[in-house]
Design goal:
alpha+beta; protein dimerization activity; Heat Shock Protein 90; iron-sulfur; 2 domains
Length: about 425
């Protein structure tokens, strides 16, 4: 059970116990009236007094004790309190000793009235209490008793209104504190539920991040295997086939074998670097335009196709991942040209702009229909997919334009995220 609930239960029990005080005070006052009936006090006959006392007890019993839910009906409770004031006045008329009961009206003031009406109710109870304290209504018939009565009345009203104001302030403070505790408890419950939910979401995110990491690494390795091993093996096979076709021309045959051997060494080196997630060897200590120029020259020499690189804009160092992506895209595009295009010329354009860097690869080869669906058996099917996935991983885009007999143009556009150059 929360603190707010405990406090509310305690206040409810305390209010119910306090509501027993009027009965005890009424019984005690009635006993005093009976015991002191021989004293020289203005009093009505005992049967009348007992009847009024019984009516008063019944009024409180019916309106408050038996119907506690009526406390939420302000007009009904105002009617009850007005009747109670009348009965207190009649009891004091019956005997001034009922002033001991009159003070319990302060308790019922807090319980039944609302707002500023509590102060008015306390003032009314104070008036009847002052009347009982000066000896009852007959005392007021003599003018000489009025100064002392007014002094007693002023004292009672001042004390009653002050104490009622403090009691109301304390009660309101306790109610606000109970409400704050309730809201705080609800907030704590919501926070605990949120923390539990967040813990589950955190665990789910960890699983998803782990799965995404595995998938990303799988895609990276697939791309590296395709870019490095597949291209290298394709080049080696091409050179070996060319060596077989050389026949007795030993010099040409030796050149093709040396090229195949170098391709094997380069592919092995790049495979090791791919496993270690290192930058391509061409970019080690070399700017991207120079590395691309080296790739283009080497490809042109091996395949016997004219190829050139054009660089525009100011070449600034980019993030290693971006430069590696552009280099691998150029290698894959050139490999596709060698395998499928039967081109005579290839042009690469590397353009540095303010926010973007683009790499365009154009050839005058056979071309193809980009809209045609590709099957898994298509030899070059993975090349474009690998390039597009690689470019998209760095928030770039890849566009392909081609038509049968009209050549092919591939354009990779990536963000120009520069890195600082050490002075």
């Amino acid at each position: 059970m929360s603190d707010a609930s405990r406090l509310e239960i305690w206040r409810h029990r305390a209010d119910r116990r306090l509501l027993l005080m009027p009965y005890l005070a009424l019984i005690g006052s009635t006993v005093l009236v009976i015991v002191a009936r021989d004293l020289d006090l203005p009093a009505q006959p005992l049967p009348v007094t007992l009847t009024v006392a019984a009516v008063t007890a019944g009024w409180i019993l019916w309106m408050v004790t038996l119907h506690p839910e009526w406390s939420d009906r302000p007009r009904l409770m105002a009617t009850f309190f007005a009747g109670l004031l009348v009965l207190i006045g009649v009891l004091i008329w019956c005997n001034p000793l009922f002033g001991f009961f009159a003070w319990t009206g302060y308790l019922l003031t807090i319980y039944t009235l609302r707002g500023r009406w509590r102060l008015a109710g306390a003032g009314g109870v104070a008036c009847f209490t002052a009347v009982s304290q000066v000896g009852g209504y007959p005392t007021l018939a003599e003018a000489k008793n009025w100064p002392s009565f007014l002094l007693v009345l002023l004292f009672n009203v001042g004390i009653a209104v002050t104490m009622t104001f403090l009691a109301v302030a304390t009660s309101d403070h306790a109610a606000r504190r109970a409400e704050m505790l309730r809201e705080l408890t609800e907030a704590n419950d919501k926070l605990a539920a949120a923390l539990t939910e967040n813990a589950g979401l955190h665990a789910q995110l960890l699983v998803q991040a782990r799965e995404a990491g595995v998938l990303d690494e799988r895609q990276r390795m697939a791309g590296e295997i395709h870019d490095v091993l597949a291209q290298g093996l394709t080049g080696i096979v091409t050179q070996l086939e060319a060596a077989d076709q050389a026949g007795d021309r030993e010099t040409e045959r030796r050149r093709h074998l040396d090229t195949a051997r170098q391709l094997a060494r380069d592919s092995l080196t790049e495979a090791r670097r791919s496993v270690q997630a290192l930058r391509p060897q061409q970019l080690t200590g070399t700017a991207l335009p120079e590395a691309l120029a080296e790739v283009v020259d080497g490809w042109s020499e091996v395949n016997g196709v004219f190829a050139e690189l054009i660089t525009t804009g100011t070449a600034l160092p980019l993030l290693p991942e971006i430069e590696a992506t552009l280099l691998r895209t150029a290698q894959e595009a050139l490999a596709n040209v060698a395998r499928h295009a039967a081109a005579d010329r290839v042009a690469l354009t590397l353009s540095y702009m303010e926010d973007l860097v683009t790499l365009d690869v154009r050839d005058d080869g056979a071309g193809f229909d980009p809209a045609q669906s590709r099957t898994d058996e298509y030899e070059g099917g993975y090349g474009l997919t690998a390039m597009r996935e690689r470019v998209q991983r760095i928030s770039g885009t890849l566009a392909v334009e081609s038509e049968p007999g009209g050549g092919t143009a591939i354009s990779a556009c990536v963000p120009a995220i520069h890195v600082a150059v050490a002075a």
